[in-house]
Write a structure and sequence with these properties.
69% of the residues lie in helices and 12% in strands. By secondary structure, the protein is mainly α. The chain has one domain (2-67, 104-128). Strand 1 and strand 2 form a beta hairpin.
């Protein structure tokens, strides 16, 4: 679950930046503070949903594998969160986007976090003149 670790790291960075903003500028930048708080809450919720989804899928993978025994295209979970598709004895590893059909929640959260941290750094640079 390296994605959840990475998301947790970004959330921790956002918390630190929020603390700095609140301590140095208690009556300013309310919009930025609210955006950071919203990001932190959403990211924490998404990480929990991802953990729950991963746990739920890992418990049901053995059942789905046994029911797909006669299919020429089989999916199998490797236990490391990877999904391998076997078609006529040819294997390929699916990435996260292939499995979900769209950009995952973690990637979206990471992009929002990076944008948020860029805004914070721009505000800090404007005050320090760097």
């Amino acid at each position: 679950m390296s994605n959840s670790w990475c998301t947790s790291w970004v959330v921790e960075q956002a918390r630190e930046e929020l603390e700095v903003l609140e301590s140095m500028y208690p009556n300013r930048f309310e919009y930025l503070k609210l955006e950071l708080k919203s990001f932190i809450n959403n990211a924490e919720r998404e990480v929990e949903e991802l953990k729950h989804h991963h746990y739920k899928n890992s418990n049901s993978s053995a059942i789905s594998i046994s029911t797909q025994a006669s299919c020429s295209r089989k999916r199998k979970c490797t236990g490391h969160g990877d999904v391998v598709v076997t078609e006529n004895r040819k294997c390929r590893k699916l990435n996260h986007n292939d499995v979900n059909g769209a950009k995952g929640k973690v990637e979206t959260a990471m992009e929002r976090a990076e944008a948020c941290l860029r805004k914070i750094r721009e505000v800090k640079r404007s005050f320090t003149g760097a």
